[in-house]
TrEMBL record:
Keywords tagged on the record: DNA-binding
Matching Gene3D superfamilies: lambda repressor-like DNA-binding domains (1.10.260.40)
InterPro entries linked: Cro/C1-type_HTH, Lambda_DNA-bd_dom_sf, TransReg_Diox_bact_type
Species whose genome carries this gene: Candidatus Scybalocola faecigallinarum
One MF term in the entry's GO annotations: DNA binding
Pfam families in the record: HTH_3
Domain of life from the UniProt record: Bacteria
Domain HTH cro/C1-type: 13-67
SUPFAM superfamilies: lambda repressor-like DNA-binding domains
Name of protein: Helix-turn-helix transcriptional regulator
GO cellular component terms, A-Z: cytosol
Length: 106
């Protein structure tokens, strides 16, 4: 059994936070931890605990499955769930556009 790649998890969390234009302070407040702890997690100085990971994912509005998808033997299902979650937020018109794009890419 391979070890969990905490550095990849840390990177994903940081990338998502930055993509969503959220500060470490905001995430820390939502996750009920210190800002320095978020910094240490993002820079892979500490391993994130499961409870903190769940709280951070809630703050980032992302599933834990998506963050951990690289750890699965078959990561596609986690990615598909994240795509479906985002798709539910789209208008019917945008869903049609997305479907056309998917068909083009296949």
């Amino acid at each position: 059994m391979k070890d969990i790649d905490f550095s990849r998890i840390s990177s994903k969390l940081k990338e998502l936070r930055i993509e969503r234009n959220l500060t470490q302070e905001f995430v820390a407040q939502k996750a009920d931890v210190n800002t320095s702890h978020i910094c240490n997690i993002e820079n892979n100085r500490v391993k994130v605990s499961l409870s903190t990971l769940v709280q951070i994912c809630n703050a980032l509005d992302v599933t834990v499955d998506y963050i951990l998808s690289d750890e699965y033997a078959h990561p596609d299902s986690a990615l598909e769930q994240e795509v479906l979650k985002e798709l539910r937020l789209c208008s019917p018109e945008n869903k049609e556009k997305i479907l056309k794009i998917i068909k083009i890419l296949q």
